[in-house]
Structures are given as structure tokens and as C-alpha cells.
Amino acid sequence: MLDYSLGIPEVDEITGGVPKGTNIMLLGPPLTGKHLLIRHIIYHTIKEGDSAVLVSTRDTGDEIIEWFSEYLEEEERSRIGIVDCVTKSLGKNIHDKDVVKYASSPVDLTGIGIKISQFFEEFIRRRQIPKTILCIDSVSTLLMYTNIQTLFRFLHVFTGRVKLAGAIGIYVVDEGMHDDKSINTLKQLFPAVFEVRTDGEENHLRILGLGSKPTPWKRYEIDGVEVVIKSGE
Amino acid sequence: MVTTGISKLDDYLGGGIPPGKTVLYYNHPGVEGDIFIIHALYHNMLAGRKSIYLTLSSDPQIFREEFMSLGWKIEEHAEKFILIDAYSSLIGATSGEEYVVDNPEDIGNIDRIVRRALDDSDENLLLCCPLSAIMDLCGVEETLKAVVGWNKRVGDRGQNIIYHFTAWPYPSEVLERIKEELFNAVIEIGGIRERVIFGQYFAVVKADWTRATGKTVLFKVVRPGGVRLYIPKILVTGPFNAGKSSFVRALSTKSVSVDRNNTTVALDYGHVDHKGMSADIFGTPGQERFDPILRMLSSEAMGIFLVLDSTRPRDFERAKKMLEMARSYGLPYIIIANKQDLDGALSPDEIRRRFNVPDDVPIVPTIATEKKGVFEAFELLVERIMEDK
Question: A122-136 burial, b if ≥16 CB within 10 A, otherwise e?
Fold first, then answer.
């Protein structure tokens, strides 16, 4: 019985789905479309009738909602909550809306934490939506504004909240931007890793830490909101 | 005395914050507590006190606009409100503020600017500071060392500092030092949690100039308005036709009535916003056939209004019985002597005699249909609920 799914059937077949309370690192080099993978996972979650909280450090809330409006109806979009760390840091003042809440800047982990909590309360307690996912795109950008100990403490709290709430969390980390020590520090918090790599021409993905062994590398392409696994290695 | 900007909190602190004292808001992650700092800054500005804020994670202009989102204008107090800008340099922007920290990752730089701001002011000064944000940037030990210096300085000069601290999982010795040693007062801000945080509270954990009450107060943040004390459930009960629904409607800013044939068949619900307090009130139906659920309805309630029709003393026995059912948890209550406008209405004193009401239970005369007496009753019950905890 699947608790959660990342929306890629070929992967679910091998791993048996994602148990609630799992925190997953989405790790890969830059330019491998990790933010599109996140959008795919969110899309799939929404289509299942569940909710998603996305902390965004690079795209504004408005941009993301507009992107989703091509694929999701208004009721479906109302189950997405975006914590926008971009708009206010550009000097633009703006008030929290239903679907987008604003943190002062990527430095403001306190504020980001408050907005995540508010969305969790809205979706889980008030609207009683049974399942919720938390995505942070990206942890690497947050790390640019603070140090690893501070970020670790923040993630320690929120990976814990994800577990307590029976949700799952997916956290984007750019490989090559951090030293091995930092990555290993972070890995303590993420029992599962969704790894992507590129050979220049094609992208591959695999999952470690869900199920008894890693999935094999699979070639994939992203088409809008769909992740299409290509046959062959 | 410096005000916290929240009158109940000032009460618990013995009137406010005396000169020279330092206060820490110990804020559990995820709970909206930085707003307490904004309350303090604004209300001290209003009182004519110079108020300085050190901003580290927010653009200064955006921070000023936070006041506006609460409905507070700060333009008239412009000379009283000053920002120490430690944010702009972090993102490589230039700053127009009076005090600028060029290198926010260097505690020595922050320390110099803070001391200059303290020295430039007389004893009538409140400085507010995001403690954990500075610790995260400059290092825990270095920051706490500087803080000890700042606290001593204001202690000598009669100035005040209020710190905001997000209680991330720092090492336990650090948290202990912060909670117990470094500050004259500590106010905890936290969440009441099941799977997620669904209620917020503040509590005075320590205040070395007054007897710390340890009382926990629930609150909500509304915009505009700010921090509102919050009571999640007050029951309005009493015999059939005593005027419970009218009472709920009269008190409420928003209310929902559930009635059929002019009588309540489920729960009346109302939300009250009055003088910095917020409450959700629930009116029960009066007929006996609903009694089995009365006990259930009163669970999680924090107080009770017992509404009587003052012209019908023969219903008082029924009222007593309902009160016993609802009070199985020993809740604070007050009696509403409603329908005072009608002929034959007994006065509160007469009711007290005939009903054998203990002297310490208030009986408030009301005319619910004209909203008379209802808010006095509300304030009285909230007082009792706050004392009771």
C-alpha cells in the first residue's frame, strides 16, 4: 500500500512508494532540471487530492502559480502553499495571500519556518487534507546566506515536523556547490536520496534509501509536468 | 517603565519593564513571535520613547511596512524610530539608515555600532535585537559575550533591551544559559501541538523584578491589530428562552445561529473581538432533550455564561442543574441576569438572594437585545478565566 508516491510508476514499482514521515534529499548537479522534478512531484500530489508546501528561493510565488495554472484548476491550485523567499528580498513589499506567503529574505529562517507552519496548520488541521508534502527548492540557496550549522538546526526542526505530521519532505541540493563535509552533515537528516546525474546528453535518476536496495539508474525526460522514463540504460 | 505593547503581559510583569532591565522572547520555531517585538517598538514610540531595531534578515524599508500591515502608522514618530541596518551589507546593497553595519558577520562590527547607538541615546531608550539571527551569523559564543556587555551597559544607564530568540536546537548548555542566566526576564512563546501547531501561547518564565506568574495565555495574530489574547471556547448556557442566542449575537462580531421555529436546535456560534481580546463563544440550546450533550459541549470550554430570564425565577432550578452539568470540570462562570427591561425582572441582588449565589460569583444585569451589559460581562469573565489559569 503506497503511503505517498513521487509520481513515477517505474520507481514506485521497485520501492513500494514513500512511507509517511520520510525526508528525501533531491541531489544532483546544476542544470539537471531538479526544480522541474519538484514541480512534477507537486503536480502528482495535488492530482491525488493532497496538498503541497513549496519553499522557493529562486522563483516568485506568482511565477510558480502561473506555471501551474496551465496544468491545474483553481481548486487544485488552492492546495498548493508557496513560501516565497524572493519577492520581498527584491525590495518589494507585498502582503501574504492564500496561496503565497512571503518571507523577508532567504536569510530569514525564522520567518520561513513560521510560514511553513502556517501552511501545515491550514492544510492539515483546518482543511483536514490527509496528506501533505513539503518541498524546499533549494536548500543550496539557503546555504548561500547562512552557515551549515544554522541550516542544519533549521532542517532538523522541520524534518522533525514532517515526521510528526505524517507528511513527506523533499529538499533540493545542488551537487558541486558544497563540500563533501556539508553534504554528509545534511545526509544525516535524509535517510533517502533521490539522485540525478547527467552525461551531458541525457539525464538519469535513481532512488536510494527507500526499499532494500537502490533502484537502477533510469534515463528520464521531463515533458511539462510529466517525468517520462525512457527504456534502456 | 517600558511597555511590551501587550497590556496583559505588562500586567504579569508588574506594570512593564523597569529601567535597566533586559527581556528575552524565547520563541519556539514555527510560531509567529517576532510580532511581539513590533508591538514593543510601536507602543514605546507612541509613548515618546526612542526605539531602535537591529535588522539582520529583513530589508529596513520592508520592516517599516510591517507596522502598516498591522494598521499602525509610524510616520509621525519617524524621529523616534531608528534602524540599525545589518541586512543591506549582507546582500551587497547600500543603506540609507543612520546606523549601518558594514560587516554583519563580524560581531566586533555589530558590537561597535550597537554601543554607539546606546551611547548616542539617553536613558529613555529601547533597543530590540534578533538574538538567534546574530548568533547564527557571528557565532554563538562571540555573540553571547557581546550581549553580556550590552546588558551590563544598559543596566548601568537605565536603558532597556528586548531580544527575540528563535529556539533552534542549539546545544542544551547554550539554551539553558539563555533561558536562565543572561536576561532579567524571559517570556516563552510556543505552540500547542498535535500533529501540527494549532494554537499559540505566551508565558512569563522568569522576571527578576516581580513575582513571575508562569501563567500561560493563548493568543492569535490578526491583521490589522496584532497580538490578541484568545480564548478558544466559552459556553453560553441557560434555560429555554433565557436569551442565550440574543446574548451570543449581541457580543459577536460575527455569529452563526442555528435555529428552527425560533428556537435553537444546535449550537449558536459567535466570534468576539473586544479590547485586545478574542474569543469563540458557543450557545447551547435550552431544552432538556439536549442535556446529554451539554456535558460534552462543556469539555474544552474555558468559562461559562449562565443566562437567566430575570422575570422567570421558576426556571432558576433548571439553570442550576444545567450549570452543574456544564461545570463538571470546575470552570469559572458568571451569571447573566437578562431581560432587565421587562416588567417583573428581578435585580441581581434579588437573584443572588433567591438563588443562593456565592458572593464571589458576579451577576451582571443585561438587556441582550439592546446589547446592554454584554461587554461588561465579557470583560469580567475573561478576567476570571485569565486568573484561573
Answer: bbbbeeeeebbbbbb
Q: Is a pLDDT exceeding 60 seen at residue B389?
A: no
Mean pLDDT of chain A: 92
Give the range among A224-228, B56-60, B234-238, B328-332 with minimum mean pLDDT: B328-332
Contacts of A165 in chain B (CB under 8 A): 195-196
- What is the value of ipTM here, to two decimals? 0.87
**What's the pLDDT at B259?**
65
- Exposed e or buried b per residue across B298-324, where buried means at least 16 C-beta atoms within 10 angstroms of its C-beta: beebbbbbbbbbbebbebbebbeebbe
d(CA B266, CA B282): 10
Determine if residue A103 is left, alpha or beta; phi over 0 gives left, psi from -120 to 50 gives alpha, anything else beta: beta
CB contact under 8 A, A120 and B197: yes
Give the integer Cα–Cα distance in Å for A138 and A117. Answer: 18
Three cell numbers, residue A12: 514506485
- Each residue of B63-105: pLDDT tens digit? 998 898 899 998 888 889 999 999 999 888 889 999 999 999 9
In angstroms, the Cα distances linking B9 to A8, A82, A217, B126, B186 are 53, 33, 59, 17, 12
Angle between helices B348-355 and B316-326 (to 10 degrees): 80
Please answer whether residues B234 and B280 qualify as being in contact, where contact means their C-beta atoms are separated by less than 8 angstroms. yes
| Shortest Cα–Cα distance, B201 to chain A (Å) | 15
Q: Given CB atoms, is A189 within the 8 Å cutoff of chain B?
A: no
Average pLDDT value for residue range B363-383: 92
pLDDT tens, B11-28? 889 999 999 999 999 999
B364-to-B282, B308, B310, B337 alpha-carbon distances in Å: 19, 10, 11, 6
- For residue B88, whether the previous peptide bond is cis, meaning omega lies within 30 degrees of 0, is no
pLDDT 10s digits, A129-174: 999 999 999 999 999 989 999 999 999 999 999 999 999 999 999 9
- Comparing CB atoms, the residue among A95, A105, A161 nearest residue B57 is A105
B93-98: long-range contacts, CB 8 A cutoff, minimum separation 24: B95/B60, B96/B60, B97/B60
**Helix orientation angle between B131-138 and B140-157, rounded to the nearest 10 degrees:** 140
Q: Between chains, do A114 and B32 touch, taking CB under 8 Å as contact?
A: yes
Angle at the Cα of A111 (from A106 to A114), degrees rounded to 5? 135
- DSSP string across B187-225: EEEEEEESSSEEEEEEEEEEETTS-----EEEEEEETTT
Q: Do residues B88 and B163 lie in contact, with contact meaning Cβ atoms separated by under 8 Å? A: no
Give the model's pLDDT for residue A148. 93
Pair B275, B228: CB distance under 8 Å: no
Q: Give the pTM.
A: 0.86
Could A111 and B57 be called an inter-chain contact, meaning their C-beta atoms sit closer than 8 Å? yes
